[in-house]
Amino acid sequence: MSVPILSAREVNKTFGAVVAARDINVDVAEGEVVGVIGANGAGKTTFVNMVTGYLKPSAGRIQFEGADITALPPRAIIRRGIGRSFQIPQVWGSMTVAENVEVTLGIAAPGPLPFWRKLDRPEMRARADAVLARFGIAEHAEVEARLLSQGVRKLLDVALATVRQPRLLLLDEPTSGISADEKFGVMETLMNALKDQQVTVLFVEHDMQIVERYATRVLAFYDGTIIADGAPSKVLADADVRRHVIGETHRPGKH
Amino acid sequence: MDRTLLILLAVLAASLAGALAMPAWAVSLATMALAKALVVLGLVVLLRCGLVPFGQALFFALGAYGGGMALRKLGIADALLGVAIGTAVAGTVAFLLGFLMARYREIFFAMLSVAFSMIFYGALVKNEALGSTDGFNLPTPTFLGYAPKGEEMRRTLLAYTALVSVGLHALVHAYLASPLGRAATAIRDNEIRVEYLGASVQRLIHGKFVMAGALAGAGGILVGMATGHIDPEMSYWTTSGEFVFIAIMGGASSVVAAIAGSAVFEVVRTYALQYAPQAWQGVIGAVLLLIILFLPNGLWSLVERRRKRAAGAAGEPGR
Fold first, then answer.
1. Is residue B288 part of a domain?
2. A-B Cβ pairs (cutoff 8 Å, strict)
3. Do A164 and B186 lie within an 8 Å CB cutoff?
4. Is the pLDDT confidence value at B240 over 60?
């Protein structure tokens, strides 16, 4: 196997007496679409947060494309080629959707940008529109982001995260807070938009149908660590996973 | 051409014409308004990031004392050099303090900036060489070799202040439209997203803090030249409060709001002092109350609201 795009070794995170993550070991290869499942509090988001520098591991090492990123601040990790979206979308509420992308292009686009030039000009708007079209939210271009529905806001959040053209993208619950009948639509749009970006994706998800449909590999978290890792059909059929993860997350009324 | 730039050009033309034709009291009022507008302009940059510096008088005073000492002690008589030195002194101190200030937000940022301004005030009051509580008078500046006196000097200073102030307003206007300037709103709305795009919020704020400090310094030395006198009061917290007051009164939506706010403030204060010398602060307070109640986005929102309505009537998209 060539150098994994993401590699975690013996990663632990404790908050006082609380163990949020213990002995996480995983290698992700380029091109994989990894679904991360687990009950609330199982350590999924803690893991994503550690990979992206929001939390520092208490112990262990995280590597991206073979280079250590364990102690780096978020912006340094992002500059190396990792992007992420959030469970609660992090967009700029007082700006329109198009402005969100324009400003993102302004401060995050790869390569030098004429920073002294007016941002609000036709070619920037055209680039922003192209991004929005890819994520299927072009019709909302003039809407202030704070007024968006959750689904559109989630898509915008991911769209902003991809402007820097990351090689690894972490999506924290891309379909949470979206009604059941819209979930597949959002996920479908997302995966299509990412298809031609050649990006390795790791997404946290509670909906097993979505995991089954989109993931090429599944990591099951329980009690802060990975209890199963492999092909979706195998992991979702695993007895431990069925008892600890699916049993707890598939109760009606909870997702 | 950009509408804001047109308005700024009109302000410049009116100020230059005013320097020739206005009565003396209006000349000094306009000079003060244009000089203070620079401090307010700096506040506008920070307000857009969601930061309220309640101690901006520090840089106002630093500019005045820095430029003032250069004029008095170094034998520099040129107004242009004086302003450059005042601006540089304030900007340098802002750069140094910025390493600390850029880590703080909201009330902590506001209070820390008051603390620094009051430390400087305390130092000035104790310092005999800088004139202690009395401050010192400034020699009459010259303008690129031209050395007018009295009334003539004040008129020249208005023209000069208008050139500097309007020029800097135009620069900041361009800056606010650039990616770095637009990042201000992004910082105010959501810092996490900014960091997760690979940008450093701290560095962005630091840059804007230096810019605001330098602008306040330029305003300080210009006010010093206009009044011919500099004293520690310039660093006092009530002076800072006045700038925040003007910034809120004008609004942060356009750089022109800084000039409009300063002009209205100077006019209201002049008349309030004249007709209600015992209660002028009450009049100012009442004006601010009315603005916060009826124009929460500042005086300039009156102009923009009308413009938006006009645009809507013409069937243009509201962008």
1. no
2. 89
3. no
4. yes
Q: Position A122: which residue type? A: P
From A112-121, A196-205, B9-18, B26-35, the region with the lowest mean pLDDT:
A112-121
Closest chain B residue to A166 measured between Cα atoms?
A: B197
* Residue scoring higher pLDDT (A110 or B74): B74
Residue B231 inside a domain? The answer is yes
**Can you state the angle between helices B3-21 and B256-275, rounded to 10 degrees?**
40
The two counts, helices (H) then strands (E), for chain A are 10, 10
In a domain, B287, yes or no: no
Instruction: Indicate whether B220 belongs to any domain.
Output: yes
Q: Give the torsion sign (CA, B68, B73, B78, B84).
A: negative
Please name the member of B178, B183, B200 whose beta carbon is closest to the beta carbon of A116: B178
Q: Is A178 within 8 Å of A150 (Cβ atoms)?
A: yes
CB proximity B193 to A under 8 Å: yes
Q: Compute the mean pLDDT over every residue in chain B, rounded to the nearest whole number.
A: 87
Return d(Cα B14, Cα B167) in angstroms, integer. Answer: 14
Selection from A178, A155, A182 nearest residue A89 by Cα: A155
Domain of B171 in residue numbering reads as 3-236
What is the maximal distance between C-alpha atoms in chain A?
59
User: How far, in Å, CA of A203 to CA of A214, rounded?
Assistant: 10
Cα–Cα dist B248/B47, whole Å: 9
**B155 CA: distance to closest CA in chain A (Å):** 34
Question: For B132, left (φ over 0), alpha (ψ -120 to 50), or beta?
Answer: left
Confidence of residue A19 (pLDDT cuts 50, 70, 90): confident
Q: How many domains does chain B have?
A: 1
Supply the pLDDT for residue A38: 85
Please indicate whether, in this complex, the C-beta atoms of B200 and A84 are within 8 angstroms of each other. Answer: no
Cβ under 8 Å to B: A residues 176-195 = none
Q: Which of B5, B195, B196, B319 is the best mutation test for A, with the most CBs of A within 10 A?
A: B196
- The string of pLDDT tens digits covering residues A113-149 is 566 677 777 888 888 888 898 888 889 888 899 998 8
Distance in angstroms between the alpha carbons of the first and the last residue of chain B = 17
Geometric angle at alpha carbon B287, from B281 and B288, rounded to 5° = 90
A172 inside 8 A of chain B by CB: no
3-state DSSP assignment of residue B140: coil
Compute how many other C-beta atoms are within 10 angstroms of the C-beta atom of residue B32.
Answer: 23
Task: Report which residue type is found at B303.
Answer: V
Task: Please say whether the beta carbons of B168 and B160 come within 8 A.
Answer: no
Runs of H (alpha helix) within B228-251: 237-250
pLDDT at B43 over 80: yes
